[in-house]
Design goal:
single chain; alpha+beta; Aminopeptidase; 5-stranded mixed β-sheet; 4 helices; 21% strand; globular
Length: 144
């Protein structure tokens, strides 16, 4: 099993490369270095990376609003999948959220990402059909 550790701002370039090479992941302005650094500072100790032989092979970003947790960008390199790495990363996030008294966690999956949907359903996560998510994007910021 690879080593799991807390994600730091110095991991940004490796995490970005991982996101860029993973089908089904959409990069936005919100994934820029400064935005990622703000996210990690606002949610200390909640995002994690997986390393094997000095190489970053997986990551997950996690945050909360004080009541609910949110997972984003769970990624594992294709040649490292099916080894329990993604599940271990998710569990670390859920454990840390629980230590904060947060027992419910949400995530978003693009409707076109059937592999991710299958992954989450297979681990007991439930697709919500009772709500719709709305987003507001001010003019000039179409790629947040």
């Amino acid at each position: 099993m690879p080593t799991l550790r807390t994600m730091t701002p110095t991991d940004y370039d490796a995490v970005l490369a991982l996101m860029q090479s993973t089908p089904g992941i959409s990069l936005r302005d919100a994934d820029a270095r400064d935005a990622t650094e703000r996210y990690l500072a606002r949610n200390p100790g909640l995002s994690f990376v997986a390393e094997s032989e000095g190489r970053l092979i997986g990551c997950v970003m996690c945050g909360h609003d004080g009541r609910r947790g949110y997972l984003q960008h769970l990624l594992v390199l294709p040649d490292s999948r099916r080894q329990g790495i993604a599940q271990a990363l998710v569990q670390r996030c859920l454990n840390e959220l629980e230590h904060l008294g947060i027992h419910k966690c949400h995530l978003d999956v693009f409707k076109s990402n059937t592999g991710a949907a299958r992954f989450w359903r297979g681990r007991g996560w439930q697709l919500r059909t009772d709500i719709d998510r709305y987003s507001f994007i001010p003019t000039g910021h179409e790629n947040p």
